[in-house]
Structure of HPP transmembrane region domain-containing protein:
Amino acid sequence: MSEQSDRVRFQLVNGLLRQLHLERLNQRFNPRLVLALFNLVNGGLSIALIATVALVTQQAFIFPSLGATAFLLFYLPLAEASSPRNVLCGHLIGALAGLLSLYLTGLQDAPAAMLVGVDWARVIAAGLSLGLTSALMALFRVAHPPAGATALIVSLGLMPHPAQLPVLMCAVSLLVVQALVINRLAGIAYPLWRARPARAGAGRPVTPG
C-alpha cells in the first residue's frame, strides 16, 4: 500500500483516539499495532452489529462478502472502491447478476450447491454471475471487489430468493452508515456518495467527495 494510504489509516485511528481521549496509546505502543487493534475491534463490532440485527429479525442480514466490505471501509476508507456509491451499487449488481443467472439456468428453486454439490448448470450460473458482475461494475465505474463474492453467494443458491434482496441491501447500507459515522468522527472526509477524480498532478487517483 502507498505511504499516503498509510497516513490516512493512521489519521483515522488517531482521530478516534483523540475523540476517546486515548491518545497515549499511540505514545506507548507501536502505531501499527494500534491500527491492527482498531481493525480488530471495529471490524468485529461492525459485523457483530449486523449479526445482531439478523438475530433479532431472523432475516439474512449477515453474509460472507460483508466481511470484505467492512475491511475496505475501515482500512481504506478513501479508496474509490470504498465509497458509498461503489459499495451499494456493486453489491446490488452482484445480487441481481446472481439472481439472473439462477433464472437463466433454471436453478431458482434448486437446493444450494453446498448441500447437493455442483453440476454443469451450477457451473454456468456461477461463471455467468461473476462475469456479469465484473462487466457491469466496469461499465458503470462502480468497482467493489466484494460484490463478486455476493454474486457467487446468490448464484450458488445461498440467497436465491428475490425477497432476500432488500434485506441484503439493508445490511450493506447499515455497514456504509457505520463507516460514515466512524470515519467522519475521526476526521476522515469519507464521501457521502462518491469519490471524485484527483486534480491533474495529484499523487492519489481519487480524493473524497
Summary: The chain has nine helices and two strands. Residues 3-207 form one domain. The beta strands are 196-197, 206-207. The chain has one domain: 3-207.
